[in-house]
Amino acid sequence: MLFLSWIYTLAIVGMAVFGFHLLLLALIAVAAWMRGVRAPAPAPARWPSVLVQLPVFNERYVVERLIAAAAALDYPPHLLTVQVLDDSTDDTASIARACAAYHRARGRDVTYHHRANRVGFKAGALAEGLASSTAEFVAVFDADFAPPPDFLRRAIPAFFVAPRLGMLQARWEHLNPDQNALTRAQALGADGYFMVDQVARSSAGLLMNFNGSAGVWRRACIDDAGGWQGDTLAEDLDLSYRAQLKGWRLDYRADLAVPAELPSSIMALKNQQFRWATGAFQVLRKLGPQLLTARVSLLRKILGFLHIGGFFIQPLALVTLLLSLPVVLQHGRTPLNLSGFGWLTLVPVFVGLWGQITLRRDAWPRRMLYYPLLFCAGIGLALTNTRAMCEAFFGGGHEFRRTPKGVSVTGREGAYALPIDWTTWGELLLALYALATGLLALDLAPGLAPFVFLYALGFGCTAALAFWQNGWTFAMTNEQMSK
Fold this sequence. Notes:
- The chain is an alpha/beta fold.
- The protein has 2 domains: 2-28 and 309-482, no CATH class; 48-263, Spore Coat Polysaccharide Biosynthesis Protein SpsA, Chain A.
- The protein is built from 19 helices and 7 strands.
- The protein has helices spanning 2-35, 63-71, 92-105, 121-131, 151-155, 181-204, 219-224, 235-245, 266-293, 298-308, 313-322, 324-329, 346-359, 364-367, 371-380, 382-394, 407-410, 422-444, 449-482, and strands spanning 50-56, 80-86, 110-114, 137-140, 165-174, 215-218, 249-260.
- The protein has a 7-stranded mixed β-sheet, with helices on both faces.
- Strand 1 (50-56), helix 2 and strand 2 (80-86) form a beta-alpha-beta unit.
- The termini are far apart.
């Protein structure tokens, strides 16, 4: 039992490390906000050539919107090329091909590329498209994004005042934040991430990442860093760190926003988070040794490891839940006094609040009402992301699983909706385990009971939402078929 108590204690300490890390980023972000917004760079004397890449895979509901937005970018037409990089295996291919032809007939340089295989997944498509272009800069937008017309004219000038700037990331806005309670909660979390994590890392010169979409790369940076590589599911994080270890700088603009679609179902969110977590763990395995020996400061190294390994907090949370029963049976006794770490649970609340105050000044009280759901989803994703860690380190973990999109267009995920899987049943079992442990803790270790009940609430909420949404989707499908 003592051995289990030590593992439990170390897991709590590990979670606390990530809590202090988030607190540090929050303090840096607040300090950056107090210094004021940076003035935009002046327009360059010569506008460079730009390649806009649109990687697509089975996106029948959103691909026309994506191509139309890219074709409408306000940039000198003779300097702009739009590539539709389509790996689709359904009718998206015919839709995208026709849409590209439509805009090409109206004078826009929109090319369509379809691969017979998906080697390298998104990274493979980007690399193949890049090989056929000589553009100086490359913008990337995923299928669920809709860049505003002035995006390139606002982003490109930054590269002419910073010769070693390799990538500029824009903030993700939301196309469907009010779709349902889950999208409202996700919007809250995304705002906090972009107004704390990205602001802090860019303003303090820390190692940061391209978020996979709504960013512009300097072509020379991509080439120097070794190009797009498809050996992880996080090609964006992989290239970001390889570029920075080569001496390139990445930056972020909070005032440059591109709207995108939020997953509207818990299964879609779990699928997205599983892919992101798997990719991050793969990048840690791939680039961890290089980061360890890199010629950067010790602080940047430590924060870099915490950045890439950010998903570790959820496996640690799962460990603490599973070992809470032995600790409760010991009346809450642990080798170290852990009571002082409880206040760190307030740090994510502040991050969410800060994102809303800085971006949604008039609406933040109403939007913060959805924080409990965000908190519950964060706990409930622990099983999915622990599975991602196991697959990344011990299994294949290299199957690209797309996130269903199209809710902002169709009102539902339609043909791409995901059914519940075994993780939903696992979440239900974990909720029951936490509930039983919490009830036992009320008598044997009252101080632990509230925290264990939070686990029961998080896993229970995630499982219940999956069952409810799956039943609702089935009912809607039958209703549509009967008409």
